[in-house]
Amino acid sequence: MNRERRNPKAFGLLTALFIVLILTLVGCEKGSLGLSGGAISGTVLDSQTLVGIAGVSVIAKSGLDANKATKFTSTDSNGNYHLGDMRSDEWTLTFDKFGYNPIDETASSSPKVVVVNNETSIVPPVRMDSTIDNQYITVRGTLKDATNGTLITYGNANFVFGKEAFNNRLPSEFTTGFRIPASPVPISLDISVAGYAPVNLPINRPAADVDLGTIMLQPESYQIVGRWTDVPGWVFQEAPTANIFAYAGNRLVATSTSTLNSQSFTIPGIPKGTSVSIEAEIKGYRMNGPVVVYPSGDFQGTIYQTFSLKNNFAQIMRDVRLVISGNGITTNDYVGGFCEQTGTQWPQTIVTNPPGFTIGTPRVIDLGTQQIPTGYTLSFSGYIVGAGTITTEEVRINDDGTDAQIVTIQVN
Q1: 132, 149, 176, 275: most buried by Cβ count inside 10 Å?
Q2: Against a cut of 0.85, is the pTM above it?
């Protein structure tokens, strides 16, 4: 029995038609018959400043209402945009951004661009008109002292926003804000408050209310340059650090540090017109009283002031008991001692043999006490006149005791 044979020609025709259908679908997806799509690039400018506008919504549409294709993007920080993977057709572009008149499909300035596969169509720059003319916005902020962080609420203040000026105002009015015309271009804000350095702040295209937050103002100030005088040699050599404080009433307004072997020190940033009392902490010294500086009301330069360790300070003193000890001390010897740096002398003492004194045992001679400056290492010398011997010991005199500090010198 013979089976019916299929027609090979009919089968081949069906296969060919299927392949053509697949290629057609792929071509429709990517443009036209498989070719890659085209692209559109352009720029959006402010019609007054000719500066690129960022954040403009760009929509491209093509085809009839029943079968429209739509592409969407937005401009970058320079006002540039790019639309890719677009089918071959005529596309209409629209543009929209708050603060500008939109350009829709019916506008004469709406570009109509023919897209060709594998090509990028460059659109001439599109210019958008600002809508903020005759509109007003509020600009506000908070003024604080940059030195102590306190709110600035009093004093004569002037605020200039571009061409708009608000003079003879209180600094606190800035917290509520000032009404100024909206601007499609950047403007500058100049703030001047009595007693503070003026500041200039840019405001980028104020089209809506602006809150500038906290603005720190630097007080107008002067500085004091101090000079150390009457510094003892041993203090100069050790170069201790002095901590300096400037007070206006009970408020600390400026500080500084210095070493006493430096020629001068500077106390910067004292508010203009402010009288200050200057105090200093120095090892081994106590200040007799604050040094008061009285500037004129509008002075902003440098005031020079001398700080004398002899007149403005008093040394912290302590009793020092000097003891001389040695086997070579004999009856009728004269024993004495002194401090090399201060020149302090202990009276000479003649040695006698009290009852029970044993020859050959170490002799201990107490020369008594003298007032010696504290806080520094000093050289103490003991001597025997008859023997012509002298011995020196370096001892640091402490200022943390009420009893006499004992310095013992072992002589030969």
Answers
A1: 132
A2: no
Q: Which residues of 110-120 are buried (b: 16+ CB within 10 A; e: fewer)?
A: ebebebbbeee
Query: How many Cβ atoms from other residues are within 10 Å of residue 213's Cβ?
Result: 8
Residues pairing with 337 in the sheet = 346, 382
Contact 225, 262 (CB under 8 A): no
Rg of the chain over all Cα atoms, to the nearest angstrom:
46
pLDDT for 95 equals 96
The structural architecture, per CATH, of the domain 136-217 is Sandwich (2.60)
CATH for the 317-410 domain, from 1.25.40, 1.10.357, 2.60.40, 3.10.450: 2.60.40
Q: Do residues 181 and 165 touch, judged by C-beta distance below 8 A?
A: no
Nearest to 54 by CA among 91, 111, 95, 109: 95
Q: What class, spelled out in words, does domain 221-315 have in CATH?
A: mainly beta
- In angstroms, the CA 358 to CA 362 distance is 9
Domain 38-128 is classified in which CATH homologous superfamily?
Immunoglobulins (2.60.40.10)
Could you read off the pLDDT of 274-310 as tens digits, one per residue? 899 999 999 999 999 999 999 886 677 899 999 999 9
| N residues, the chain | 412
Structure tokens at 405: 């500090």
Judged by phi (left if over 0) then psi (alpha if -120 to 50, else beta), residue 284 lies in: left
Got the DSSP string for 320-356? Answer: EEEEEEETT--TT-EEEEEETTT--EEEEEE----TT
Cα 226 from Cα 242, distance rounded (Å)? 12
Residue 36: Cβ within 10 Å count: 13
pLDDT tens across 234-245, in order? Answer: 999 999 999 999
